[in-house]
Design brief:
Layout (H helix, E strand, L loop, with lengths): L3 H23 L4 H37 L16 H36 L3 E6 L4 E4 L1 H7 L9 H4 L3 H13 L3 E8 L3 E12 L4 E9 L1 H36 L6 H32 L8 E4 H19 L2 E7 L3 E4 L1 H17 L6 E9 L3 E8 L21 H6 L6 H11 L3 E7 L3 E9 L8
Parallel strand pairs: 7-9
Antiparallel strand pairs: 1-2, 1-5, 3-4, 4-5, 6-8, 9-10, 10-12, 11-12
Length: 452
C-alpha cells in the first residue's frame, strides 16, 4: 500500500518537473537558469518532508488503535499537537482509558459470574437456537457424567429427550418454563428444571437451571409406598375381623365349635393389628428423634442377656436352640430401650424364619477401630441374594406368606436399622439361601469420654 509521503512526492514530481523543464527551455543561460533545478528539487522535497511527518503521525495513531483492544499491552503515549491530528490523538487517549475501564469491569463481572456458576450446586446449562451447548458449569458436567465440549448437540449429551423438549419449547415460545424431570444418567435422578429464553441481537437460546430434588422425590415415593403398604396391611386383618364378626352375628353364634374358631381368628388378627400399630409408633418415635432421654453407657452383655431371656419362650415354642457364644464385657453409648428392642427384633426374626432344631447364636466382640460388633447367626431358611438389598425397607417381606403365618409385620428390620443408625452404628447382613443368615451390628465402643 502506497504511503502518504510517496503519493505526495509523486504528485509534486509530476507537477513541478514539467515547470522546471519548461523554464530550462525558455530562460536564457544565466544564474536564474542555473537555480531552476534547485528550486524544482526544493519544491518536491518540502511537500515530501511535510507529508512524511504527517504519515508518521498517522502511523502512530494506527498503531495506537491496534493496541487499544489489548489492555495487557502498555501503550506508548501519543504526541498530541494543536492541529486536527492532535485533537484526534487526545480523543483516542480518552477513548482508550474508558475502554480499559469498561473491559476491566466486564472482565471482573465475567470472572465473578463464572465463579458463582462454578460454585453453584445446581446444574446450569445454556444452549443456542439450534440446541447446541454454549455453556455448562461443573455441576452439569457431573450430572452428565462426562466432559461436554462447547458446541456439541444437547441430544448427544443427554440421551433422554425430556430436557431437549423443554428447551426447544422455551426457544420456540419465548416463555419461561418450570417442570420436574427425571433424567436417567448414572442413576435415576429427579430435577426441578427452570428454563428461560435468552434473546440476543442475532441469535436466540435458552438457559436451564437444574435443581437436584432426588432426595425429596425419594422421600415422597417412600411416603406414597408407606401409605399404600399401611393401608394394605390394615385392610387384610380388618376384612378378616369384619367377616368373622358378621358370620357370628348371623347364624354361627349357636355353633360352639365354629364360634370358637371365629373368635380365635378375630383374636389373632387383633393381635396382628396391635403389633403393626406398636411397630408404627416405634418407627414414628425414631423418625422424630425419640426417645428423648440422654444417651448412656450400656453394657452389651446385659442387653444381650435381657433380649435372650425375653425371646427364650418363643424359641422354646418353635423348637429353635437359642445360645450365646462369646459376649464381651464392653460398653456402648446409646438408648438402652431402643437397643434392647433392636436385639429382640433380630432374635425374634431369626427364630421365626428357622426350622425346628435350627440354632440361633449371639456373639459380641471388640473389633478394630475401637468398635463393638454384635452378630446374630441362624441356620434357618436364608435370604435370596436379590432380596438382600431391600430387607431393611418398611413392609418388605422375602416370603410374604410365611411372614404373615408367623405374625411378622414387615417392620422389624426397619426398626433395627433405624435404631442402630441413631446410635451412630451400622448393620449388615450375610446370607445363603437354605443355609442361614448372619446380621452384624457395629457400634462405637464407650471409652469413658462424654457421649453426645
Amino acid at each position: 500500500m502506497a504511503s502518504i509521503s510517496r503519493r505526495m512526492a509523486a504528485v509534486a514530481t509530476v507537477t513541478v518537473l514539467p515547470v522546471v523543464v519548461a523554464l530550462e527551455w525558455w530562460i536564457p543561460p544565466g544564474p536564474v537558469r542555473w537555480l531552476t533545478p534547485f528550486w524544482g528539487i526544493l519544491a518536491i522535497a518540502v511537500p515530501w518532508a511535510a507529508s512524511r511527518a504527517l504519515s508518521r503521525r498517522v502511523n502512530d495513531l494506527l498503531a495506537y488503535t491496534r493496541e487499544m483492544p489489548d489492555s495487557d499491552v502498555s501503550r506508548r503515549p501519543l504526541q498530541a499537537g494543536e492541529d486536527e491530528l492532535g485533537e484526534l490523538a487526545r480523543s483516542l487517549s480518552r477513548m482508550a482509558t474508558k475502554m480499559d475501564q469498561v473491559v476491566q469491569g466486564l472482565s471482573t463481572e465475567l470472572a465473578r459470574r463464572e465463579a458463582i456458576l462454578a460454585s453453584m450446586t445446581d446444574a446450569v446449562l445454556a444452549v443456542d437456537g439450534r440446541l447446541n451447548v454454549s455453556f455448562c458449569n461443573e455441576a452439569f458436567v457431573r450430572t452428565a457424567g462426562h466432559a461436554i465440549p462447547e458446541g456439541v448437540p444437547l441430544i448427544k449429551v443427554l440421551r433422554d429427550p425430556g430436557l431437549f423438549q423443554i428447551l426447544k419449547h422455551v426457544i420456540d415460545s419465548g416463555e419461561t418454563l418450570r417442570r420436574r424431570l427425571s433424567i436417567p444418567v448414572q442413576e435415576d435422578r429427579w430435577f426441578e428444571v427452570s428454563a428461560t429464553p435468552l434473546a440476543g441481537a442475532k441469535a436466540r437460546g435458552a438457559l436451564a437451571i437444574l435443581h437436584d430434588v432426588t432426595p425429596m422425590a425419594r422421600v415422597e415415593r417412600m411416603q406414597r409406598d408407606f401409605v399404600a403398604n399401611v393401608s394394605h396391611e390394615f385392610r387384610t386383618p380388618l376384612a378378616t375381623i369384619t367377616g368373622c364378626s358378621e358370620t357370628l352375628l348371623g347364624r354361627a353364634w349357636d355353633d360352639e365349635r365354629n364360634r370358637r374358631k371365629f373368635l380365635e381368628i378375630i383374636h389373632a388378627n387383633s393381635v396382628r393389628l396391635t403389633n403393626i400399630a406398636a411397630d408404627l409408633i416405634t418407627l414414628s418415635q425414631l423418625d422424630t428423634g425419640g426417645p428423648r432421654s440422654e444417651p448412656e453407657p450400656i453394657p452389651v452383655q446385659d442387653v444381650v442377656s435381657s433380649a435372650m431371656r425375653a425371646i427364650e419362650p418363643v424359641a422354646g415354642t418353635r423348637g429353635v436352640i437359642l445360645q450365646a457364644a462369646e459376649i464381651c464385657s464392653a460398653r456402648i453409648v446409646g438408648h438402652r430401650l431402643a437397643f434392647e428392642q433392636a436385639m429382640a427384633n433380630l432374635l425374634d426374626n431369626a427364630i421365626k424364619f428357622s426350622h425346628p432344631g435350627a440354632e440361633v447364636t449371639v456373639r459380641a466382640s471388640v473389633a478394630a477401630g475401637d468398635r463393638v460388633e454384635i452378630s446374630v447367626t441362624d441356620t434357618g431358611i436364608g435370604i435370596p441374594p436379590e432380596d438382600l438389598s431391600r430387607i431393611f425397607e418398611r413392609f418388605y417381606r422375602v416370603d410374604k406368606a410365611r411372614s404373615r403365618d408367623v405374625g411378622g409385620t414387615g417392620l422389624g428390620l426397619s426398626i433395627v436399622r433405624q435404631a442402630i443408625e441413631r446410635m451412630h452404628g451400622a448393620i449388615r447382613v450375610e446370607s445363603q439361601l437354605g443355609k442361614g443368615s448372619c446380621f452384624t451390628i457395629t457400634l462405637p465402643r464407650y471409652n469413658g469420654a462424654a457421649a453426645s
